[in-house]
Amino acid sequence: MEKTQHFIDHNKDRFLNELFELLRIPSVSADPNFQKDVTSCAEHLVKHLQEIGLDNVELIATAGHPIVYAQKILNEALPTVLVYGHYDVQPADPLELWHTPAFEPVVKQTDIHPQGAIFARGACDDKGQFFMHVKAIEAMLQSGELPCNVKLMIEGEEEVGSPNLALFVSKNKEKLKADIILVSDTGMLANDTPSITTGLRGLSYVEVELTGPNRDLHSGLYGGCVANPINVLTKMIASLHDDNMRITIPGFYDKVVELSDEDRAEMAKAPFSEKAYCEALQIDTTYGEATYSTMERGSIRPTLDVNGIWGGYTGEGAKTVIASKAFAKISMRLVPDQDPEEITQLFLNHFERIAPKGVRVKVQPHHGGQPVVTPTNSPAYAAASKAYAHTFGKNPIPVRSGGSIPIIAMFEQELGLKTILMGFGLDSDAIHSPNEHFGLFNFYKGIATIPYFFKYFSEQQQ
Ligand code: BES
Ligand code: MN
Ligand code: MN
């Protein structure tokens, strides 16, 4: 991989400028106002993948946003790596909290990224990360060092739950045939502590609507005489956790796989500072389920959180009113072997059961996803580990993450393929938040590390 690394070193500035071009396209999948931008981002990618010499570059229309596909098949007898990523991004709002505009990428220094970080929506999640693969593949191709076949599938709907990718995957099993899936859409512990993500949580997401009286009421004339949907909703939500911060929905924990003491002890070895964690978030203390550490609460334990709540009067001044309706959006992060559909049903039954007379409950399920755990004793994991050891000079630590990428479990179900999650972002990179960024160190380290995965993986497959 010497020529490849040489090529990377000599094209660093161009790689960064090309990423900037991608980041300037506001490919927000959730907001219909950006539909044209999402499509033009896909088209821009198609052109770029053709330019770097990939074959069969396609823009594949779906019922939603397009999928971009490309491949380089050197020889059918060689192993094949399927790279997955997403070019769509989260909405940038609240815009006023960005120090520089979300779709005008700039490099700025931070305490954690003294060599500079790229600030833009999608810099880390996931444009900056999937683009590392595009550049690593280009470098291997141009240097004549690509050791195996490669397929690239970049979707435009990950941030809205990949509603159309699942169908595409199940209908294109032959096209997507590979030996391993490689994804950079997660994080690592720190720039001097490389890690490989070995698990993702699942997700069940519901929206609840409570209706009391048929219209908004004067809170003097009716207050105290009718069920106030906002009072009731907040009480119902509060009851979803007990004093130990355990979730009270009957059956919620039934299928949760508990870790052995050995596994927990192994997990506790990963460097983690409770103090630094609190300082970074300006909180006095962490908060969560009794008897579990912060690391465990954020990865191997299921959770329930209100993501949004609204109703009644929120404008200027005081309006004396009892609202007819109250709403909330609630996410539940799931762990093996919880099933998102089953958990949604348990939530629904419970929420309807605890609603007092005087209100009506409506629960609308949104997208969900299965949890994933990836093996650490596989040849592919060993290849990834060796690649990190080569470029970081340290063995990576296996870490289960709290985030979700619902399509990963689908890949295993539909294609029978395992995934290696080689993420290079940091938790502090503010993904989904204002001022999202991605370290230059991380971007270039990713580009340098990926070719070694290709090399070691190909060598062991032959
Ligand atoms: N890349 C993230 C998931 C992620 C980030 C996993 C960091 C591990 C570490 C992905 O784009 C994402 O945001 N997923 C959503 C779920 C999706 C259905 C909207 C999430 O986790 O909230
Ligand atoms: Mn992502
Ligand atoms: Mn995301």
Q: Which architecture name of the largest domain does CATH use?
A: 3-Layer(aba) Sandwich
Rg on CA atoms, Å: 24 Å
- Count of helical segments? 13
Approximate helicity band = 25-40%
CATH class of the largest domain: Alpha Beta
Total of domains: 2
Spatial arrangement of strands, main beta sheet: 1-2-6-3-7-17
Q: In what range is the share of β-strand residues?
A: 15-25%
The CATH homologous superfamily of the largest domain corresponds to Zn peptidases
Number of strands: 18
Structure description:
The protein is α+β, with helices and mostly antiparallel strands. The chain has two domains: 2-200 and 371-461, Zn peptidases (Aminopeptidase), CATH 3.40.630.10; 202-256 and 302-369, Alpha-Beta Plaits (2-Layer Sandwich), CATH 3.30.70. The protein is 32% helix and 20% strand. It has helices at 2-10, 12-23, 35-51, 127-142, 165-171, 229-238, 261-267, 274-281, 294-297, 340-354, 379-392, 407-415, 440-461; strands at 55-60, 67-72, 80-86, 106-108, 117-119, 149-155, 180-183, 195-200, 202-211, 217-218, 303-311, 321-322, 325-334, 360-365, 372-373, 397-400, 419-421, 437-439. A six-stranded mixed sheet has the order 1-2-6-3-7-17, sandwiched between helices. β4 and β5 form a beta hairpin. α2 packs antiparallel against α4 (127-142), α5 packs parallel to α12 and α11 crosses α13 (440-461). The longest helix is centred in the C-terminal third of the chain and has 22 residues, at 440-461. The radius of gyration is 24 Å and the shape is globular. 42% of the residues are buried. One manganese (II) ion (MN) is lined by residues 90, 125, 159, 431-432.
